[in-house]
Amino acid sequence: MSAVLTSTAVQPGVAFELDGQPVTAHAGETVLKVAQRHGVEIPHLCYTDGLRPDGNCRACVVEIAGERTLAPSCCRAPTPGMKVEATSPRARKSQQMVVEMLLSDMPDVGYRWNDEKTCTPDLIAASARPSSGRGHFDSKNDAAVGQHGELSAWADRLGVSVRPALHALRREQPAPDLSHPAMAVNLDACIQCNRCVRACREEQVNDVIGYALRGADSKIVFDLDDPMAESTCVACGECVQACPTGALSPKTHVGSQKVDRKVDSVCPFCGVGCLITYNVRDEKIISVEGRDGPANHGRLCVKGRFGFDYAHHPDRLTVPLIRKPGVPKEVRPYGADWRDTFRAATWEEALDLAAGTLKSLRDTHGPKALAGFGSAKGSNEEAYLFQKLVRTGFGSNNVDHCTRLCHASSVAALLEGVGSGAVSNPVNDVEHAELIFVIGSNPTANHPVAATWMKNAAQRGAKIVLADPRITDIGRHAWRTLQFKADTDVAMLNALIHTVIDEGLVDEAFIRDRANNFEALKANVMGCSPEAMAPVCGIPAETLREVARAFATAKSSMILWGMGVSQHIHGTDNARCLIALCAVTGQIGKPGSGLHPLRGQNNVQGASDAGLIPMMFPNYQRVDNAGAHAWFEDFWGTKLDETPGYTVVEIMHKALAPDSDPHRVRGMYIMGENPAMSDPDLNHARHALASLSHLVVQDIFLTETAWLADVVLPASAWPEKTGTASNTDRMVQMGRRALNPPGDAQPDLWIIQQIAQRMGLDWNYEGEESGVAAVYDEMRQAMHASIEGITWDRLERDSSVTYPCLTADDPGQPIVFTEKFPTPTGRLQLVPASVIPAAEKPDADYPLVLITGRQLEHWHTGSMTRRSTVLDAIEPMATASLHGDELARLGVAPGALVGIRSRRGMVQVRVRRDDGTPHGTVFMPFAYVEAAANLLTNAALDPFGKIPEFKYCAVAVEVLQGTVSEVA
């Protein structure tokens, strides 16, 4: 049975009576919510915050004067003068009956024991006895102790025990489904509240869980009643979080819910920045829950919920290592014994050697001889301190991190066009968008929680346009799909801009008042009509015109893009076109409209903000700007290099420069970065790293890069540190330490300071957690123009604050550019872009195009996610995806072993059929060392963003094993 809100137009200040007391309902409140706010306990099981009220369990019924039947309070809106009895004898009797009937069907031993506050062994044993239906009450901690989660808790509060006669009629118990690596399905504890169905269908919009059959046979099913592991489940765990009884549970947290501590933090994976809570028992994280943070509102994905155990992996580095003399520098496979290559050392010895040799190289060959790679996987404080060390200790601006490999071109275009490299609107502002333009991004795999906001918007009627060479999962929710030919982004986008101008859809007021260089843009796209560009990009002209009209005429249109836009030699031009499309239509500076480059790693936004890039001081102040240069020289009290440093790829070239080159890089310090897997043309990158006179690597695992090091420093994983991270929405968020680093591993912030002191810097950051609060306060002063109002105390209290935030009472600005742009003129600068072909085109020898990217379960170079039990179990093997027609042309079946070859290298992988991958292309994730996609990719650079062309290179596929006939 279900119900809907009987009155949807609830106005503020509706006065009614609840249990004889006058109360007032706020706008949109149900009777249940009003009761909760006034401390009146009404049992409820099918309702939980965050899910649509369904009214099917009937545990929350109340008595309303003048009405014959009891009403479900979770979906009943109050009306003026209504008299509600929540605890009347009739209401209470019905509530108790529902709870007793549900409890009578429960198994003898449940899966979610309510003992998380305090529960003695005697009480645990008693609560597991079949004769005990209610559970027990721990008066000391006011916590119900029982074996069936929320059901036991309500039974205790209502004084309900199951009568033996009713217990004897218990249903036949269904068999458990333990097929999934992450979740246990025990439907003998299911009360069919449908919370899991709503969580899956309405929150995450994955449409996997359903309610099947009728009457006594009705049950929860996955797809067509498949085992969970064989269904289309993406393991977001939203159902687990929603389940009130433990019928759906994480396998690591079945039974006793008692934990030693709960620690609030932020997810260490993608840039969405979901707030989480770690559950810690016996000094191990046993499960993760989503918190109601502004970016996720309790939602998580498979990585955030089940990818936590990498921190406990036996491969963790626990002692400093020093390379043995004479051992060649080469990347070793997983599981190789480090003792063959390194010897254990004390921290004093390792730090002295690491910093002492770097200092000697600096003093002998000059400051340009050193370079540093920082990390977007660490904290803002670590990023800030690392770039400060390179600039003040090494003496140059040769510092960079993975932003160079993901959104450098986007940032270059945004700084040029709108004066800021950050997003204009948060992801969940798509709630206010009429049209959502997703280009060069696979959000359901790369930013799954962000994708849920897009899917929710589509459910409400927003139009999603997916523009991508590949049709990915978000395409199922799209109004129009623009599957353009790879490398033709500019042609397609110029056709859209042309249409807006040609059909008189330009926002004339915006162009007049807020933009420059419109006439040059107009002239540039004059020859780019949809009819002219259709053969180039492969999209019918009428479709291009239809999408352009919809984008321009929508009340609000928002563009979200990923590395499919940025990782080209024309990536900056791609982003310039997106800026221009927003500008000519006036779709920026208001709710539901604007520009959002989706950040890949958890702190790539914050690391860039903090200055971990070679041409910018913190807060994007150019190092060659005289005013900014003088300010930082005064702030840091030392002379600074006046010229921009080299970028990631350029540093690799300089490591192989001749000895006569005064800028040859001879020593490097790499913190939490893995260029031996993430750089393009890996053979070249690995050769460069191995050629260094001295390489210091600071990491939590012996990564491919660490195998090439002279000194390896064991560092702290994200759950082992306290610090802030800034997500893709410009939210500065607090991460708290839940664990101590293993063995002799140390916090990254401590290690950086130790290196700095040995390099001759007089640093002394006092306070807990290696002085993290003091470092943050210094960073806040350096970035006063954006985060001055976000103090450490405020973050400890609020966990998340959006910048710009300039005063203590400033709530932060989720939407920017509402009145002006932070450019010298205050106006947006339009920059025309012409069609530039890729640096390398297919030919007879290399007839296919390789596109690289991420997949849902694995992240970055796989150093963390491939050491997560669940994530590796779901996706254990490197694969390459091809269209079914392409497989047929090759004469192979899915699962066949092939070699993929480019002009730079060759890898062997198993093929996977994916008809969303276009003809003539191959898609490969880059997280697998045994089949490293970046052995194939092209190191050609975008001239503005200096980003490599990961998304396009020519390859050939050679069948090695598994032709159709062999499989047959």
From TrEMBL:
Q: Which Gene3D superfamilies match?
A: 2.40.40.20, 3.10.20.740, 3.30.70.20, 3.40.50.740, ADC-like domains (2.20.25.90), Dimethylsulfoxide Reductase, domain 2 (3.40.228.10)
Give residue ranges for domain 4Fe-4S ferredoxin-type: 181-211, 224-253
| SUPFAM superfamilies reported for this sequence | 2Fe-2S ferredoxin-like, 4Fe-4S ferredoxins, ADC-like, Formate dehydrogenase/DMSO reductase, domains 1-3
**Family, per entry:** In the C-terminal section; belongs to the prokaryotic molybdopterin-containing oxidoreductase family.
Top-level taxon in the UniProt lineage: Bacteria
Under Pfam families, the record lists: Fer2_4, Fer4_7, Molybdop_Fe4S4, Molybdopterin, Molydop_binding
Q: Residues in domain 2Fe-2S ferredoxin-type?
A: 12-90
GO molecular function: any one?
formate dehydrogenase (NAD+) activity
Which taxonomic lineage is given here? Bacteria, Pseudomonadati, Pseudomonadota, Betaproteobacteria, Burkholderiales
Q: Where is the signal peptide?
A: none
InterPro entries given for it? 2Fe-2S_ferredoxin-like_sf, 2Fe-2S_ferredoxin-type, 4Fe4S_Fe-S-bd, 4Fe4S_Fe_S_CS, Asp_de-COase-like_dom_sf, Formate_Dh-H_N, Formate_DH_asu, MoPterin_dinucl-bd_dom
- Known PROSITE patterns for this protein? 2FE2S_FER_2, 4FE4S_FER_1, 4FE4S_FER_2, 4FE4S_MOW_BIS_MGD, COMPLEX1_75K_1, MOLYBDOPTERIN_PROK_2
Which enzyme class, named as a word? oxidoreductase
Keywords assigned by UniProt, alphabetized: 4Fe-4S, Iron, Iron-sulfur, Metal-binding, Oxidoreductase, Repeat
- Sequence ranges assigned to domain 4Fe-4S Mo/W bis-MGD-type in this UniProt record: 260-315
What protein name applies here?
Formate dehydrogenase subunit alpha
Q: Which co-factors does it depend on? A: [2Fe-2S] cluster
What EC number(s) has UniProt assigned to this enzyme?
A: 1.17.1.9
Q: Where are the transmembrane segments?
A: none
